[in-house]
Amino acid sequence: MPHLGFIPARGGSKGIPGKNIAKVCGKPLIQWTIEAALGSGVIDRLIVSTDHPDIAQVARECGAEVPFMRPDALAQDDTATAPVVEHAVKSLAFQGTVVLLQPTSPLRLPMDIARCTELHRRHGKTVVSITETKLHPSWMFGLADGDRIVVNSPVAPQRQSQQPRYIPNGAVYVFDANAGLELANSIGYIMPAIRSVDIDTPLDLMFAEFLLGRRPAMLSETDLQAFADSFV
């Protein structure tokens, strides 16, 4: 089945205006994702869904297609990802596998994309990239009366005695176009924290630029581990 690389990149970011084309280590943010997709060797067609002409122009210059402009109704702050994907699939009459790549994950590598598509081929289920979280849910508190901590569940024991917990890192989602993005019973692809930065705030952007500026252009898995260990 053909693989459609799909990058959703609306223009209305509130936290970081113009985020998707903000320069990170000299490149527009979205370019990091486009290059990883093209370098993975598994994408048959790469498109960007956007409502903003500047993003569309940058995407085309970086090697992606922008076959349509996203309707304003699908580019609101509260717009979910699923209907944006459905709009693209219907617009292109696409039948095959969708590889969803958020432009806010610039540290993913081509091999991450390729391995996720292989997992999807092997298992026939949605594949979601995840990363281990150090924060156990029982350590998440609420506040009442402005400043009183509310403990919602018994506090977990020391981290060393806990089972690992994982969260989606936003880097890669692979699923059948006909089935849509269905997370129930999906397959997890574990990525290290150093490749799991998801840019949502100016601090995230600064951290991603710090890491990207110190990462060689090509890294083996051994080198990646050594690079990660250098920050411990």
Portion in helices: 25-40%
Multimerization state: single chain
The number of domains: 1
- The CATH superfamily title: Spore Coat Polysaccharide Biosynthesis Protein SpsA, Chain A
- Strand proportion, as a percent range, falls in 15-25%
The CATH topology is given as Spore Coat Polysaccharide Biosynthesis Protein SpsA, Chain A
Structural class: alpha/beta
Mean pLDDT: 87
Low-confidence stretches: none
**Which outline best applies?**
globular
Q: How many helices?
A: 6
Backbone CA Rg: 19 Å
Instruction: Note the gap between the termini.
Output: 42 Å
Second-tier CATH architecture? Alpha-Beta Complex
Main pleated-sheet profile: 6 strands, mixed
CATH class call = Alpha Beta
Strand order of the largest sheet: 4-1-5-9-6-10
DSSP, total strands: 10
What series of H and E elements makes up the topology? EEEHEHHEHEEEEEHH
Distinctive features:
232 residues, alpha/beta, Spore Coat Polysaccharide Biosynthesis Protein SpsA, Chain A, two-stranded antiparallel ribbon, 10 strands, 28% helix, globular
Q: Could you walk me through the main structural features you see in this protein, from its secondary elements to its overall organization?
A:
The radius of gyration is 19 Å and the shape is globular. It is an alpha/beta fold and 232 residues long. The protein has helices at 29-39, 53-61, 81-92, 110-123, 202-212, 221-229, and strands spanning 3-8, 23-24, 27-28, 45-49, 97-100, 127-133, 142-144, 148-150, 165-176, 187-190. Strands 4-1-5-9-6-10 form a 6-stranded mixed β-sheet, sandwiched between helices. The longest helix is centred in the middle third of the chain and has 14 residues, at 110-123. The protein is built from 6 helices and 10 strands. The protein has a single domain (3-132, 165-229), classed as Alpha-Beta Complex (Spore Coat Polysaccharide Biosynthesis Protein SpsA, Chain A). The chain starts with a strand and ends with a helix.
